[in-house]
Design goal:
By secondary structure, the protein is of the alpha/beta class. The chain contains 8 helices and 15 strands. The radius of gyration is 19 Å and the shape is globular.
Length: 250
């Protein structure tokens, strides 16, 4: 495992958060009782667990992020920014763009963090697990995810035999955090040359599994929350945020 570098994906337009994202970059939406940007909680979490070198992959309303965080010294981290290339679409496209521009390298371990995810997961334990497994990729997973819609089971003639409103799924789901060995960047770069839009979780991880790479899942029971839609944002309890993340502001 190489030197750890945090890679935060925060360039998307946040269409599921409109109309808020007509005015805010989605990673900058205010949360909690003190109304700090979501991204500040992410930066503080990574710093708390010893990840001090951060690369932010930006595009839409990037100036809001850069003006607020600057070089990161106010938060005791080092922050630099890479603007997305419109010819490289998707989350993996953003990562490969940073690779081509020299912001990330093959001798590093990349902690990839999607910028609309709020969690108190122990990042240090996650990275230790990744190192001990000698993994190429480790994906953070959680069970007990609640589907936000009703789910039906049908008979062959269309009759509903079972219906559950917003059921809990015990099968592990991705919480959009991963560790990636930089040694795989050149292989992913080859994928980006062949596909117009490349998603990290949807395209890259399955490709690496199919090609025999060491891909592991780290199951966490920590709090996590996808803030990426208006419905989710409205339901995020400010008091809960204050309670769970107080340790980041001590």
């Amino acid at each position: 495992m190489g030197v750890i570098k945090g890679v935060i994906l925060c360039g998307g337009p946040g269409t599921r958060l409109r109309p808020l994202t007509f005015y805010f970059q989605k990673a900058m939406i205010p949360i909690g009782k003190v109304q700090k940007p979501l991204l500040e909680y992410i930066v503080r979490l990574l710093r708390f667990y010893g990840v001090y070198d951060l690369i932010l992959l930006v595009d839409y309303k990037a100036e809001q992020i850069i003006n607020y965080f600057g070089d990161g010294s106010r938060f005791n981290v080092k922050m630099s920014y890479v603007y997305d290339d419109p010819s490289l679409k998707g989350t993996a496209g953003s990562i490969i763009n940073a690779y081509r521009k020299g912001a990330i390298g093959t001798d590093e371990t990349l902690l990839i963090y999607y910028g609309d995810i709020l969690t108190n997961m122990n990042i240090k334990d996650f990275l230790i697990f990744h190192r001990e497994k000698r993994a190429d990729v480790t994906v953070a997973l959680a069970s007990g995810f609640t589907v936000r819609v009703g789910v039906a089971e049908l008979e062959s003639d269309g009759r509903i035999k079972l219906f559950q409103e917003k059921p809990r799924i015990e099968k592990p789901v991705s919480i959009a955090i991963a560790a990636l060995e930089g040694s795989l960047l050149e292989e992913i770069n080859g994928m980006a040359c062949e596909k117009r839009s490349l998603d990290f979780m949807g395209d890259v991880v399955p490709h690496l599994i199919e090609n025999g790479k060491n891909v592991y899942g780290y199951l966490t029971g920590s709090f996590w929350y996808d803030v990426g839609s208006i419905e989710a944002y409205e339901k995020l309890d400010p008091d809960l945020v204050e309670k769970i993340f107080a340790f980041l502001y001590e």
